[in-house]
């Protein structure tokens, strides 16, 4: 009888742990703010976690505001890897940690020297020296992307130390890919006729800094330019012989097209928020090479 009871008890225990394991696996996901972070995170975690992106395609993370249901879902993540420099992240971070003490919050801009907004080469001919904080586009250059990837590695290792070696090996492969991307980009930018380019929204500040380029923006302090600012930009662009105007899907391209026509430049659509980080980096370099 005692023996029988013991087996029933044992079976019950097995059933319990079985169920618990199953439900734990189901909720094992990590979250990131934007798609290029998912590209890095997926390469590091492999099949150990599902990776969810908070900011949907077509939204600009600078003006993004998560819905309450998105915040609830985000709180169920094992870890949330934010860029750390977007307004919505700064507003939501402390509350998110307080209501989800089990969730690890990782700032991907940790250990990075940021470019100040409005000071990336020339944001505009005369930007009035406005200080809007650190430029958030840290994933758009191999050097800074490497820091983002390293912060993801550290966070993942913290929540799942048992698989440390697996994550580190994956990170090494990603690091190699980032270095390869850097040499492809470098090669394409070696003999540029002009090292200046125009972009609607200043997404390439870190890219410009890393490769000795100058970024001019159509957008002025996050807003469409005034007619006088446009005239100023046209004159400056003509003087510098700028031949490329980048536009991004989240922003209005009308002003950029008017400007390009005026100065005889090509409009090139890029998407620095796309998932395939490497493809996008190479595409930007190729556009500059062809100008
Ligand atoms: Zn942006």
Layout of strands and helices, then pairs:
Blueprint: H1 2-26, E1 29-32, H2 35-45, E2 50-53, H3 68-75, E3 79-82, H4 87-99, E4 104-107, H5 142-159, H6 164-188, E5 196-199, H7 205-211, E6 214-217, H8 227-240, E7 244-247, H9 254-263, E8 266-269, H10 277-290
Parallel strand pairs: 1-2, 1-3, 3-4, 5-6, 5-7, 7-8
Helix pairs in contact: 2-5, 2-6, 5-6, 6-10, 8-9
Bound molecules: zinc ion.
The site of zinc ion (ZN) has 4 residues, from loops.
Any guess at the CATH architecture of the largest domain? 3-Layer(aba) Sandwich
Reading the helices and strands in chain order gives HEHEHEHEHHEHEHEHEH
- SS strand fraction: 5-15%
Strand runs, count: 8
The separation of the N and C termini measures 86 Å
Q: Whole-number average pLDDT?
A: 89
Number of continuous helical runs: 10
Q: Using the CA coordinates, give the radius of gyration.
A: 23 Å
CATH homologous superfamily grouping of the largest domain: Nitrogenase molybdenum iron protein domain
- The percent of residues in helical segments reads 40-55%
Strand ordering within the main sheet: 2-1-3-4
Task: List cofactors, ions and other ligands.
Answer: zinc ion
Broad CATH class of the largest domain = Alpha Beta
Structural class: alpha/beta
Write down the domain tally: 2
Describe it.
Strand 1 (29-32), helix 2 and strand 2 form a beta-alpha-beta unit. The termini are far apart. The strands form 2 sheets. Strands 2-1-3-4 form a 4-stranded parallel sheet, sandwiched between helices. Strands 6-5-7-8 form a 4-stranded parallel sheet, with helices on both faces. The chain has 2 domains: 26-119 and 136-180, Nitrogenase molybdenum iron protein domain (Rossmann fold), CATH 3.40.50; 184-290, Rossmann fold, CATH 3.40.50.1980. The chain has 291 residues and is α/β, with parallel strands linked by helices. Mean pLDDT is 89; it is low at 13-26 and 120-130. The chain contains 10 helices and 8 strands. The longest helix is centred in the first third of the chain and has 25 residues, at 2-26. 35% of the residues are buried. It binds zinc ion. Zinc ion (ZN) binds next to loops.
